Amino acid sequence: MIAKYLLIFLFLFCQTSPGTESLDIESTDVIDSDKPSVFEDSWVDQMFAYQDEMNTQPSDKTFTVQISHQLFGQVNNHSIELPSGQRYQKTNRIEHNRTGINIRYASAFAPNWLLQGSWQARLFWNQDYEYETNKSIEAEYRVNELFLQRSLGRHSLKLGRQTVVWGRTVGNSVLDVINHTDFRDFSIIDIEDARLNQWMLIWDVFDKQSQFSSFLNLYPEFNPSPEEGSPLYFALPLKLDDTRRNSSPIFEAGARWSKSYDRSDIAIMGAYLWENQLQYKLSANELMQSPGIKNDFYLLGLSANYASDRLLLTLDVALSRGVFQEKSLLSITTPENIAEIKKDQLGISLGFEYGISSTQDLSLSAKMEAVADGRDGLRANQKLVTEGTRGTWLLRYSERILEENITFSGTLQGDLDGDSILISLRSDFAISDQIEIGYHLLFIDANNDSPLTIFDQDLRLGTTLTYFF
Fold this sequence. Notes:
The chain is mostly beta strands. It is built from four helices and 22 strands.
């Protein structure tokens, strides 16, 4: 069975040749497509150019509609050994059989005014894990992005659902902790696609070579728990509840100042935030419910980059004051109140992006985080899920070929201890200006010391057909 799947996939892959990341119906429409490259002018100059565009006459309303259908599943029949020593059998299964529609709208409806938004809906058909869980055709929809922007000279105000990205290291920054994320399954593995918008007020002030930006979030949200039936869902003997917001309102606020030079940028920032990942403890009550434990903390950060010809070097530094020592979507803390122990954490991200040619890009980054005095407050026999310095590395390559009708992207991601590696390959072929077909291969290798050990030797194949108008 696995041989048949692989032969079919390789045949389709060879027919389309290599190309970039496919447009996924679950995309949250973040600002990744607008990310400046190392060959462009300074980012501050670009923002001024954007302000000039905002001062032009009103344009016609613009709608972009994307309809997609996706098939995606785990195709490797195998068994894995759990840390307990037991064997767990995994069989091939379809995880996604879904149709999605994504509508994007942008209108500079008056001088110095911009309205922009995006909305998505999905239908889950037979054999999709959402269908199998609910035993019926399911549908869901949400507003991804929706904001109103007003520009006045050097000032810009944006109110609505949006994202704030402070990190310079692409896909692996210690500073990307403002917006929450939704990694509900393995069709999305990049933080740019998993990042969710939140209701915010953002104020930007532009100067000749500098920029001041601040945000206010009056309703912080948290990472959602995995959907029942999804690959990341575990049949736990307790129910994971959302956090209790009590009567006291919670909020987030932060500010960032950046300075642009001839070949480099530097920025400093500070924020009062709530951790995106809730903590859960084993419950002692009969209802076996575990309400999410929320935690507020302070973030101080520094980011810098330096461009030389085709090379861009990046540095992100984050000092988080008073964060939970244990944080993992795939683990539940024991009743010994480990979740109540807060520590100061220092994180560093290093990266480089290299433009091999006008159609080829390569990036490599590493992220390291360490907690100060990690054993303080713990008993000698108490063990943590993660101790010492922890970190991840990320390698990305993309290429556009054959007059950009075919694109290819590859992602390798793992932890610095060498306990796991994730390999993702995507190929997309533009059949016409309105139709695109994409293929996705995902493989995971992990040992018992990794939270991904349950997915060891998983091989997933998928295809997505997309229509634009």
